[in-house]
Design goal:
about 290 residues, 7-stranded antiparallel sheet, 1 helix
């Protein structure tokens, strides 16, 4: 078993009282396979009109992957899609050449708990046409006192319906009581395990929602000890051939590609269309390498 690396997610403020714990990217680790971004939001309770309200903003060269545990969130995008995501469901949006979307908790919602991830597109797909898909039903099964849900990729004979462009996996593992689970792994994948609720023990180390456990390829299984009422997010994938660049909501394979996307966004280029019903358009911050 490769050594376990412990990473402390950093706190980030999304505005309007919504705080998240950001596990990827960090100074210690930029990616897990093609997974290049992981925010853990909540669980949080809020009053009328509260929750998640993210104005129109662009993306390129990635897929946004939303796994909702509690609450109701409305996704709207520049392709004309409007989709409410509810607990146990996945929204997968492929940005490719460029897309714009908004995310809003429904007015009647009073709670939010979610994982928001990005998947970097490989160079040959980075400029593909944008797309959106909603998956209300995912493969789910019971094993060793746990309920497992396959969010992305393949696990044994099971296959998630989410359409991907890199070999990777996403799993949700939930225990009601204490549980001991041996999880098969792909030796060619690197992995990250983030407790979303409760706590996890791997060997002599304990991890809770303030700790992200990461390890390199090489293992064919891992033994997990879950405390009662624990929920884990497991992500993995083949190490990305070349680390991607990220600036604000843009992913790219060169600074030039990201700079062009930002210019197009600021100029109102048709590459980034309008989102019906949206009155708030986010402003991109200066590119981090400008002036350095």
């Amino acid at each position: 078993m490769p050594p376990i690396e412990r990473i402390t997610p950093r706190s980030a403020d999304l505005g309007e009282g919504l705080h998240v714990r950001r596990a990827l990217p960090t100074r210690e680790r930029r990616m897990i396979g093609a997974w290049c971004f992981l925010d853990h939001a909540g669980p949080v309770d809020f009053g009328p009109g509260g929750g998640m309200h993210v104005g129109a903003h662009p993306h390129t060269a990635l897929q946004t992957f939303t796994w909702l545990i509690d609450g109701e969130v409305l996704h709207r995008d520049s392709l004309g899609n409007e989709q409410v995501i509810r607990p146990g469901q996945v929204n997968l949006m492929t940005a490719g050449h460029g897309i714009v979307h908004t995310e809003d908790s429904l007015p009647e919602a009073r709670r939010l708990h979610a994982a928001q991830l990005w998947i970097a597109l490989p160079p040959e797909h980075a400029d593909c046409p944008p797309a959106f898909e909603h998956h209300p039903v995912l493969p789910q099964w019971a094993q060793d006192g746990c309920t497992l849900t396959l969010l992305a990729g393949r696990h044994g004979e099971r296959q998630s319906p989410a359409r991907l462009h890199s070999p990777l996996i996403g799993l949700d593992i939930c225990s009601s009581g204490e549980a001991w689970l041996t999880l098969p792994l792909d030796p060619g994948f690197e992995y990250g395990i983030l407790p979303l609720e409760g706590s996890l023990r791997i060997g002599d180390e304990t991890f809770d929602s303030d700790a992200f456990a990461c390890f390199a390829p090489g293992a064919d299984s891992i033994h997990l000890e879950l405390a009662a009422h624990t929920r884990l997010l497991v992500i993995g994938g083949v190490p990305f051939a070349q680390p991607v660049l990220m600036a604000w909501n843009f992913v790219g394979h060169s600074r030039e590609a990201i700079a062009a996307a930002q210019r197009d966004w600021e100029a109102g280029n048709p590459r980034f269309g309008a989102v019906a019903g949206s009155t708030r358009r986010l402003v991109a911050p200066p590119l981090p390498w400008i002036g350095h």
